[in-house]
Amino acid sequence: MKTFNDIIVGIKKWAKAKEIKRGVYMDLRVLRYFLTVAKEQSFTKAAKQLHITQPTLSRQLAALEAELEAAKINAEAELNNAKAALESAKAALIAALDQVDQANKTRITTLLGKANGLLATINSDRQSLIDAKDQLARLKAGLVSVELSNQQTIANEEKNKAVAQALIAEYEKYSTKDKADAEKAAQEANAKLTALDQIKGEKNTADQNARQAYWEAYNNLNGSLYVRTLQQAGPSYYDTEDIRGEVVNYTNDDSTNGTVWPQSYTKYTANLDRINEAITNQTRYLSVSKAALADANKALTDAKASDTYKSLAKAVTDAQKKFDDAKTEADKNTALSELGIAEGNLSAYIQPLEDAVDSATTDVTDRENSLKNWNNILAAVSGDNATAYANLLTVMDNAVKAQVETAIAYNKASHNYSVQYTLASTLQRIADGLADYDQLILVQKQAIATADENIANAASIVSEEQAIANQEKLIASLENSLAVNEPIYNDYLAQIKALVGDSAE
Question: Are the beta carbons of 240 and 43 closer than 8 angstroms?
């Protein structure tokens, strides 16, 4: 059998479970990106202001969303592991009662009952803290609107109410029976809990796979040739639409309700009229440039055939011959001076015309390249490429729908497990003489009252500042509750340890 110290270590694994501090490890640079998106209400404008490309911004959005989701999942997994460790430690404590003299059993049983009641509050506060910090991080990062945040808060509280009402119904059903039946009921409830846990794990795996498929589809969509080409062309040549599905409501097996928000993405639509207009304009510009080049070449050709050019060219030839024939240094200097003047006169006459040809040639080349580029843009956003993008949109839509379906399935399984866990734990506590139905029903009624209060608060919030302040207030309240209750809970454990003494060793 485990020693009492082993038991205490197991319990403290729960008591000291690390709290996920949402946003602490978040890259502040990334956070700035998304605050800019939230402010500008446009990926294109935000990317321009931040001096980064829109695909980069989209990838950062996906990364942040995934980071927050993973952090929440990890926090919930950590909480579930801590709960499991605590249940194991509690079972060992109850077993240790057999080795305690009768005089201390009543006191220990009373303390265990108080500890269990307090534990329910602590576990609930920790789960609420995880959700509240997750929501705060999403609000600050601009990943969720105030309206959507309020809807999520209200939906979560409605779910909490529904769970509490379902538990009250279960408690009332069992409370009419002889408490001697609680042990059998607890065994049956625990067997069902094991089966539900397996189902929850399967649904969670499917949900995570669907989430991964969504992000793959998201990255493929935003990294497609179609989107990258339009972003290169500029916002004047495409339209965007934020695709966000309607809230999906569903009903759990126990007739309680739940809500899922579909993932969102941006749909790009090429403005083919403007692109074709650009091609038409570039074609016209090219035609003008070619005409200018032809005129420049003709002017140069005519100039070289003119008597003036011939005279200036002959002057250069004569000056060169005079230089070549010069016998003395003085004659060479004179001839050299005359040669320089002659060459300068020829250059002054012909060089502007040659420069005009060079400039016109460069202009034609630039216009040809620009026209080629616009034709490439058109090709990239039409025909087979447009079809390929449409297929990616279909994949994206299917990924969103699949993720909604798996999320609903997982949420239902998680809900069933949560209710059954609470019920099984309750029945076991009653079987052990550590709780009674009246007290448990009162706790659930208090939970309903708290949920109603939180719903009223959420409904009154209209600004981002209010939403953030409300979440921060909620977090502070939960942290304060944990700060008060955890020491009391640990004191109960210490008292039990003192009463058990060496008999548990």
Answer: yes
With respect to residue 166, please indicate whether it lies within any of the assigned structural domains.
yes
Any domain includes 327: no
Any domain includes 133: yes
The DSSP secondary structure of 373-437, one letter per residue, reads: HHHHHHHHTSHHHHHHHHHHHHHHHHHHHHHHHHHHHHHHHHHHHHHHHHHHHHHHHHHTTS--H
Instruction: Determine the Cα–Cα distance for residues 361 and 294; give it in Å rounded to an integer.
Output: 9
* Cβ atoms of 1 and 95 closer than 8 Å: yes
Mean local confidence (pLDDT), 344-354:
93
- Residue 490, H or E segment: helix 464-500
| Kind of pairing between the strands at 238-244 and 257-260 | unpaired
Q: What is the DSSP letter of 299?
A: H
10 or 343: which leads in pLDDT: 343
Amino acid at 330: A
User: How many domains is the chain partitioned into structurally?
Assistant: 1
Mapping DSSP to helix (H, G, I), strand (E, B) and coil, where does residue 266 land? strand
The two structure tokens encoding residue 238: 């495409």
This prediction's pTM: 0.62
Residue closest to 68 by CA, chosen among 25, 38, 35:
25
* Inside any domain, residue 120: yes
Residue 98 carries which side chain, given as an amino acid letter? D
CA gap 388, 214 in Å, rounded: 18
Range of lowest pLDDT (382-391, 395-404, 416-425): 416-425
- 161, 450 contact by CB (below 8 A): no
Query: Can you give the residue range of the structural domain that contains 453?
Result: 4-201+252-263+433-504
- SS3 call for 321: helix
Let me know how many helices (H) and strands (E) the chain has, helices first: 14, 4
